[in-house]
Amino acid sequence: MTSLWLVMSIIALGWLPGLLAQTSLNFVKYDVIICVDSSVTIGLDNFRALLKSVLTEYIERWPIGEDAVKVGVIAFSTTLEVISMTGNLTLLEQKVPLMYYEGRSTNTHLALDQANTMFMSNGRTGVPKALILLTDGRARLPDKAFEYAQVLRNNSVSVWAIGVGTKYSLWELQQITANITRVNSTSTFSQLTPIDLGIPLVQVESSTTSTVISPATTSTAVSSSTDIAASLTSTSSVSTTIQPNTSPSFSIFR
Ligand SMILES: *[C@@H]1O[C@H](CO)[C@@H](O)[C@H](O)[C@H]1NC(C)=O
Ligand SMILES: *[C@@H]1O[C@H](CO)[C@@H](O)[C@H](O)[C@H]1NC(C)=O
Ligand SMILES: *[C@@H]1O[C@H](CO)[C@@H](O)[C@H](O)[C@H]1NC(C)=O
Ligand SMILES: *[C@@H]1O[C@H](CO)[C@@H](O)[C@H](O)[C@H]1NC(C)=O
Predict the structure, then answer these.
(1) Between vectors from CA 47 to CA 120 and to CA 52, what angle results, nearest 5°?
(2) Closest protein CA for atom 14 of ligand 3
(3) Bridge partners of 170?
């Protein structure tokens, strides 16, 4: 009897961490809206790179689900293109990379106003809310942008901003977030700075940052890289996936 109890306890303890991990992921609820600048200064290629980064570096690292993290995306220029807040990751993966590039002016205020409408109409009661603004330039009507950002903050939305490239105004982003620690910047469109919303990150395979080395190219790849931890031989019959040291944060998960 005692030994059976012991065995059962051990089994239960073995399951516990897994159950806890699953439970905590499932109960992280967050409503997030990401506003992406599609104005002329950014250019089509940078816009596409930015959307891809938004997907791989933010959205795909969150536990997306109808009862977990829901995300909406707004591409803004003279007009807006909107993906409503959803917990459907497949839908986001299909739609985000294909958002329309308008290439006209930077109507940041329209995006912030639209985001507020979306939070008010589709936001979940009692669920924390965040807005992330990604812009490479200056708002066409900064005072209106500040006002709509204030409306969001008044509605308990935490407002974050990342200046992308070199032409954004740090001062303007600080006015929009009203919190200097919620502003950051990045010089490239293909790599974003992390935003810590307190959401536990999920592990993802990134096809963009992991390098697949096939047997045919193994010898050159190994000799040109000092960072490869795995030992490879030219007779290896399987291809090996290697995360190079140059990919920054794929080993960091909370
Ligand atoms: C999620 O989106 C995909 C692609 O639009 C769709 O095929 C699928 O039915 C959606 N899933 C749910 C549960 O709505
Ligand atoms: C935000 O709330 C403050 C304090 O209640 C109020 O004075 C201000 O007018 C509000 N601003 C906006 C833009 O709603
Ligand atoms: C500013 O942002 C940081 C990071 O989210 C947060 O911890 C802090 O409480 C914020 N400060 C104010 C005054 O809202
Ligand atoms: C900005 O991003 C850098 C690089 O990811 C990070 O080290 C830094 O802590 C961030 N700053 C703020 C204020 O979040």
Answers:
(1) 80
(2) 179
(3) none
Least reliable range by pLDDT among 15-29, 75-89, 120-134:
15-29
Give residue 226's pLDDT.
Answer: 34
Over its C-alpha atoms, the chain yields an Rg (Å, rounded) of 22
- Strands 157-164 and 183-186 turn out to be parallel
Tell me the pTM: 0.77
Q: For residue 134, with 0-12 CB atoms within 10 Å meaning exposed, 13-18 middle and 19 or more buried, which class applies?
A: buried
232 pLDDT more than 50: no
The length of the chain is: 254
The pick from 113, 119, 154 for probing ligand 2's pocket by mutation, whose C-beta has the most ligand atoms within 8 angstroms, reads 154
Q: How many CB atoms lie within 10 A of CB 9?
A: 10
- CA-based torsion, 25, 26, 30, 36: positive or negative: positive
- What are the pLDDT digits (tens) for 175-189? 999 999 999 999 999
Rounded distance between C-alpha atoms, residue 246 and residue 242, angstroms: 11
Q: Ligand 4 pocket, 194 CB below 6 A?
A: yes
Q: Which ligand is nearest to the CA of 64?
A: 1
CA of 177 to the centre of ligand 3 (A): 10
Cα–Cα distance list, 155 to 44, 76, 126, 131, 132 (Å): 33, 22, 12, 12, 15
For residues 50 and 164, the answer to whether their CB atoms sit within 8 Å is yes
H-helix or E-strand spanning residue 62: none
Q: What are phi and psi of 232, to 5 degrees?
A: -120, 145
